C-alpha cells in the first residue's frame, strides 16, 4: 500500500474545514475533489537546437493565444499561417512548423503543449507529443471523475507513466535490454516528474510585443560574419537574446 493511501486512511473524516496552514490540508482538498475536472489550458512551444541539443521554448502569451484561436477556429489548418514574434516568424499551423521571414534559418517544430516531463540532463521540462498528451488528458479526466488513481500508461516509446494522484505523476524510461523477449516494460530506474499544464512548470513566458513601434534601430555589421567570441552570426546572437 502506498504512502498516499496510508495518509488518506489516517486523516480524520469528521473535520470539514482543515487548516489552510497545513500541507496535508491542501493534499486532502485535492484528493477529495473527485469529479471536479477542469480541462487543461494549452500553450504553444517551438523547438530550437541550442548547443546541439533540442530546447523547447514557449511562445509569448499573445502569440500562443493567436495560435490557439487559429487552431480552434474550425477552419482547415493546412493553409493557416499565423505571424509571430512581431512578424519575424510565420507559423504554418498545419505543418506545425515555424519559419523565419527575413533571413535564412532552419525551420522549427511547433507543438500545442499540455503535458510535460522533466528532462534527464537538466531541469527543463519537455512536452509530450500532442497525440500522447491527449491520451494522458483523457486518462486524467477519468481518474478525477471516478476518483480512481494509480493509472499506468505506456507511451509509443515504451516508457511508463503512472498517475498516482493529481500531485504525484511520474515517468519511467525503459531499461536497456529489459524487453529483449517481448516482456512488458516496468517502472525501473529514476522516475522523472510529470506535470499537467504550463502553469505547473518553471518557465518564463513573456507577455508579447507592443503593437505600437516606438524606436527603429539600424544595425550595420562591418566586422565579418562572426559576431562574438563564439563565432556566431548576428542572426544567431539576435535569436539567443530574445
UniProtKB/TrEMBL annotation:
<dbReference type="InterPro" id="IPR057825">
    <property type="entry name" value="WWE_SEC23-DDH2"/>
</dbReference>
<protein>
    <submittedName>
        <fullName>Phospholipase DDHD2 isoform X2</fullName>
    </submittedName>
</protein>
<feature type="domain" description="WWE">
    <location>
        <begin position="30"/>
        <end position="112"/>
    </location>
</feature>
<dbReference type="GO" id="GO:0004620">
    <property type="term" value="F:phospholipase activity"/>
</dbReference>
<dbReference type="GO" id="GO:0004806">
    <property type="term" value="F:triacylglycerol lipase activity"/>
</dbReference>
<dbReference type="InterPro" id="IPR058055">
    <property type="entry name" value="PA-PLA1"/>
</dbReference>
<dbReference type="InterPro" id="IPR004170">
    <property type="entry name" value="WWE_dom"/>
</dbReference>
<feature type="region of interest" description="Disordered">
    <location>
        <begin position="1"/>
        <end position="24"/>
    </location>
</feature>
<feature type="compositionally biased region" description="Low complexity">
    <location>
        <begin position="7"/>
        <end position="24"/>
    </location>
</feature>
<dbReference type="Pfam" id="PF02825">
    <property type="entry name" value="WWE"/>
</dbReference>
<dbReference type="Pfam" id="PF23464">
    <property type="entry name" value="WWE_3"/>
</dbReference>
<dbReference type="GO" id="GO:0030134">
    <property type="term" value="C:COPII-coated ER to Golgi transport vesicle"/>
</dbReference>
Amino acid at each position: 500500500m502506498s504512502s498516499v493511501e496510508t495518509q488518506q486512511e489516517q486523516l480524520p473524516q469528521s473535520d470539514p474545514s482543515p487548516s489552510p496552514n497545513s500541507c496535508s490540508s491542501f493534499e486532502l482538498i485535492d484528493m477529495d475533489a473527485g469529479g471536479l475536472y477542469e480541462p487543461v489550458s494549452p500553450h504553444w512551444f517551438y523547438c530550437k537546437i541550442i548547443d546541439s541539443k533540442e530546447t523547447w521554448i514557449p511562445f509569448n502569451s499573445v502569440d500562443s493565444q493567436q495560435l490557439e484561436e487559429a487552431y480552434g477556429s474550425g477552419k482547415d489548418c493546412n493553409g493557416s499561417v499565423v505571424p509571430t514574434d512581431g512578424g519575424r516568424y510565420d507559423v504554418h499551423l498545419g505543418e506545425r512548423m515555424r519559419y523565419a521571414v527575413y533571413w535564412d534559418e532552419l525551420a522549427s517544430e511547433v507543438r500545442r503543449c499540455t503535458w510535460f516531463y522533466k528532462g534527464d540532463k537538466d531541469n527543463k521540462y519537455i512536452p509530450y507529443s500532442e497525440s500522447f498528451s491527449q491520451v494522458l488528458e483523457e486518462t486524467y479526466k477519468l481518474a478525477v471523475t471516478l476518483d480512481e488513481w494509480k493509472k499506468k500508461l505506456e507511451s509509443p516509446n515504451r516508457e511508463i507513466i503512472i498517475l498516482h494522484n493529481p500531485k504525484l505523476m511520474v515517468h519511467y524510461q525503459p531499461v536497456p535490454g529489459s524487453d529483449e523477449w517481448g516482456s512488458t516494460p516496468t517502472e525501473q530506474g529514476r522516475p522523472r516528474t510529470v506535470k499537467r499544464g504550463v502553469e505547473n512548470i518553471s518557465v518564463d513566458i513573456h507577455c508579447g510585443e507592443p503593437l505600437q513601434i516606438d524606436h527603429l534601430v539600424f544595425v550595420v555589421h562591418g566586422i565579418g560574419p562572426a559576431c562574438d567570441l563564439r563565432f556566431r552570426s548576428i542572426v544567431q546572437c539576435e535569436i539567443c537574446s530574445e
